[in-house]
Amino acid sequence: MKQKETASATEEAGHSISTLTYADVHMILALLRGWDEGAVSLRYNELAVDAVIVSPESSPWAARTDLASQVQIRSPAVGVFTPRASVGTLFKSTEAIGVVDAPGRSTSVFPPMDGKLVHLAVAGGGFVESDNRVAPPEPIAKEWCNAR
After folding, report:
1. How far apart are CA 49 and CA 29, in angstroms?
2. 134, 82 in Cβ contact below 8 A?
3. What's this model's pTM, rounded to 2 decimal places?
4. Are 11 and 3 in contact (CB under 8 A)?
């Protein structure tokens, strides 16, 4: 009943209503699968679909993924790694996420960028050498950094 009320109110406002069948969706997806990228406009009976298709390489998210895979938090020294931040913690590049302890010396581990700790590559109490990967950070928006 509510669907009919909404439909009649929408039609009165000058907007047409159409429903997609499984066959319509299947046909649209089959046609779009053949396009690599660009603007596509499909018309079939009363069905109209306009889409912009972007290749994964030129997507704005591709650069973020590449950055995340290249940037790593690395050990600055040889010793035993002790985390100071837990998985899921948001951090700034000025905040130590852990410490590397060696006989007579402790060295803080700082991330190269602001981010979120996704997981630790070295368990707490694990031995690390200089420049070993400790954790991959997930980049975060600059707005968070300024809000803290």
Report:
1. 11
2. no
3. 0.51
4. no
Express each pLDDT in 118-148 by its tens digit.
Answer: 889 998 899 999 888 999 888 776 555 555 5
Which CATH number covers residue 138? 2.40.50.100
User: Which residues of the chain are modeled with pLDDT < 70?
Assistant: 1-18, 33-36, 54-70, 141-148
Domain that holds residue 100: 72-147
Spatial contact of 40 and 51, defined as CB atoms under 8 Å apart: yes
Which amino acid would we find at residue 29? L
Q: Which stretches does DSSP call E strand in 85-124?
A: 90-91, 98-102, 105-109, 115-117
Number of domains in the chain: 2
